[in-house]
């Protein structure tokens, strides 16, 4: 039959010899890292294009092997999958898996290879239907593709936590999330996408997440956090609540840190319509303050706001808000830098460490926007 799992097959190779890359005009959302990743065909979950191909070269660290999870394989059926197909091959041993299409699907949702290198080849000819494909992978170091049960609370009512591994690239997977980091998420939300929204993993890295399934609530409020919008939604029987490891040990770790002093590059002295002076000073940047906030001089080009936490603290994220409904001002994006002594400053570069991270800020003056620091910042001063 057309099902060639583990059979010898010759002549399957990427156009590019480099590991961790994709090549071709049929590649959709793709994020490939040494430890995990996500890949999809172009337009997924819309119909994939005619006469297209994509070749992904996956490379795990030496001494590990790859595990591939088939999220969706919906390619128009044809005899021996000759028209549109997905084929996986281990170039080291010549072993092939597939070809797969709608009438010849993988026999199991998880493929455990014995190789650190796998080539994933997708191609199409003329067709009318099909969502295409969505795959994710992890290495044998991170095999947690199923929930594992843990009893976190020894006292009734018992809190049962679950742990699952989320591959890199969850943020742009198709599907919705309902809820927010403080309330939790409706259990029909895309789990790993919700984990990115909650700030417990970085989309660029993926990682293990710990969560509990708890009783649902009447209404889940929408929020913008970590570059993702969630939806406002109604009751579900259960909800997903994400836990940072430290919060399982110390519930106070998500509390807002006290700011001892605010400083700024400049502030705006406004004269209002009645001729009264209004000072938009740095101290007015505290999130709890009503009325107008901090604002830099209108002519300032490189404005900054500085928070002094008094001593070195572990800073896991930041929440920003516009000035108020009366004064429709807000910051749309920003950089963060930190210092332990107030003299030497280090720009925040996020999980990849390649370049200074630009955080997405607010789109209006009313809503709060959360951004997580993964990894956290250890500093006394944050700018």
From TrEMBL:
Domain of life of the source: Eukaryota
Bilayer topology annotation: Single-pass type I membrane protein
Domain LCCL: 164-240
Residue intervals of the CUB domain: 27-140
GO molecular function, one term: signaling receptor activity
Disulfide linkage: 27-54
CDD domains reported in the protein's UniProt record: CUB (cd00041), FA58C (cd00057)
All residue ranges annotated as the F5/8 type C domain in the record: 294-383
Keywords, alphabetical: Disulfide bond, Membrane, Phosphoprotein, Transmembrane, Transmembrane helix
UniProt xrefs under SUPFAM superfamilies: Galactose-binding domain-like, LCCL domain, Spermadhesin, CUB domain
Protein's cellular compartments: Membrane
InterPro entries: CUB_dom (IPR000859), FA58C (IPR000421), Galactose-bd-like_sf (IPR008979), LCCL (IPR004043), LCCL_sf (IPR036609), Neuropilin_MCO_CoagFactor (IPR050633), Sperma_CUB_dom_sf (IPR035914)
Cellular component GO terms held in the UniProt record: plasma membrane
Protein name as catalogued: DCBD1 protein
The species this protein was found in: Myiagra hebetior
């Amino acid at each position: 039959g057309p099902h060639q799992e583990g059979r010898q097959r010759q002549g399957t190779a990427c156009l590019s010899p480099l590991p961790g890359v994709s090549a071709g005009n049929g590649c959709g959302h793709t994020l490939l890292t040494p430890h995990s990743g996500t890949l999809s065909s172009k337009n997924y979950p819309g119909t994939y294009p005619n006469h297209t191909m994509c070749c992904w070269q996956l490379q795990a660290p030496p001494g590990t092997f790859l595990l591939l999870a088939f999220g969706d394989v919906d390619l128009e059926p044809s005899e021996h999958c000759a028209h549109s197909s997905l084929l996986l091959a281990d170039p080291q041993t010549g072993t092939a898996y597939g070809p797969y299409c709608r009438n010849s699907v993988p026999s199991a949702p998880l493929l455990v290879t014995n190789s650190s290198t796998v080539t994933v080849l997708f191609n199409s000819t003329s067709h009318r239907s099909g969502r295409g494909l969505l795959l994710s992978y992890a290495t044998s170091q991170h095999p947690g593709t199923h929930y594992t049960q843990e009893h976190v609370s020894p006292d009734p009512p018992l809190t049962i936590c679950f742990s699952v591994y989320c591959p890199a690239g969850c943020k742009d997977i198709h599907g919705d999330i309902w809820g927010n980091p403080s309330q939790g998420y409706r259990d029909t939300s895309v789990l790993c996408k919700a984990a990115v929204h909650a700030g417990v993993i970085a989309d660029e890295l993926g990682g293990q997440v710990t969560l509990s399934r708890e009783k649902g609530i009447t209404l889940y409020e929408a929020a913008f956090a970590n570059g993702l919008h969630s939806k406002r939604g109604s009751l579900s029987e259960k909800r997903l609540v994400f836990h940072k490891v430290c919060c399982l040990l110390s519930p106070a770790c998500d509390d807002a840190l006290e700011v001892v002093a605010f400083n700024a590059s400049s502030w705006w002295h406004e004269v209002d319509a009645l001729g009264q002076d209004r000072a938009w000073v740095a101290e007015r940047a505290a999130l709890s303050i009503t009325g107008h906030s901090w604002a830099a001089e209108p002519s300032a080009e490189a404005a900054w706001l500085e928070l002094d936490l008094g001593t070195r603290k572990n800073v896991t994220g930041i929440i920003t808000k516009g000035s108020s409904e009366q004064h429709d001002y807000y910051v749309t994006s920003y950089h963060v830098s930190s210092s332990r002594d107030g003299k030497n400053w280090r720009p925040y570069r996020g999980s990849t460490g390649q370049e200074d991270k630009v955080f997405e800020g607010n789109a209006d003056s009313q809503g709060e926007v959360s951004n997580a620091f993964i990894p956290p910042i250890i500093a006394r001063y944050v700018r």
